[in-house]
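ok so for the tutorial part 2 we go from a plain amino acid sequence to predicted structure tokens. step 1 is just haveing the sequence, like this:
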Amino acid sequence: MEDSYSLNLNGKVAIVTGASSGIGEATALALAEAGAQTVLAARRIDRLQKLASKIAERGGKALAIRTDVTQKENLERMVQETLASFGQIDILVNNAGILDMKDFLALTDQDWQKILDVNLRGYFWAAQLVSKEMEKRRSGKIINIASIAGLAAFPQITVYNISKAAVIMLTKSLATELGPFGIMVNAIAPGVIETEMTKGLLADEKTRNSFLSKIPLGRVGRAEEIASAVLFLASDLASYFNGSVLVVDGGWTAHL
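step 2 — the prediction. this is what the tokens look like for a chain of 256 residues:
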């Protein structure tokens, strides 16, 4: 195999939003292990600093930046501080997300706006700000964390479903516009993953068993398994992936 086709990310700079826990934390660790200098972005700076120390202990380099993705000025600062510290941006992992369960008839304007601001608007602005820098170097990878909820509707999370379906269309739209600049944009659609966000759901035995009955592998996923998919898309091994949605769900959507 040619040397250019590998999972080695030495010399690359990656930004991961929502890096303080779950998929974001696992992804930041995986990218750092592969050699990338990693920018950790989230609201909980204490957790980011602990993660940055963990990466440093393993011989990597990470920068923690407190970032609220619903505030465009925060995202602008995130990009500016990344460039000031590392001089370039090669990879963006849009991962920050929230999930609220509520019956459709009870949803309010605030519920709608809160979820879309984080799960969609934050992705949009982060991608735009980062791609302006990537365009200068005619190279870059943007990886959006979507969900199988963007492919099939789940009850009581209507706005979340809509936000993730929109992330998938955002991915395809950006792939068509940014591809000519050498920027590849792809999405990952996780199934049910055991994280801080799903802890409450999975703690309910009835809900957990209902999920397991739909997963051919018979178990929920781990954050590290999504991180592995991110690592692949961020690497040279995915050199012809653009506008793709990589489903990582243990076979749930095989039923669709």
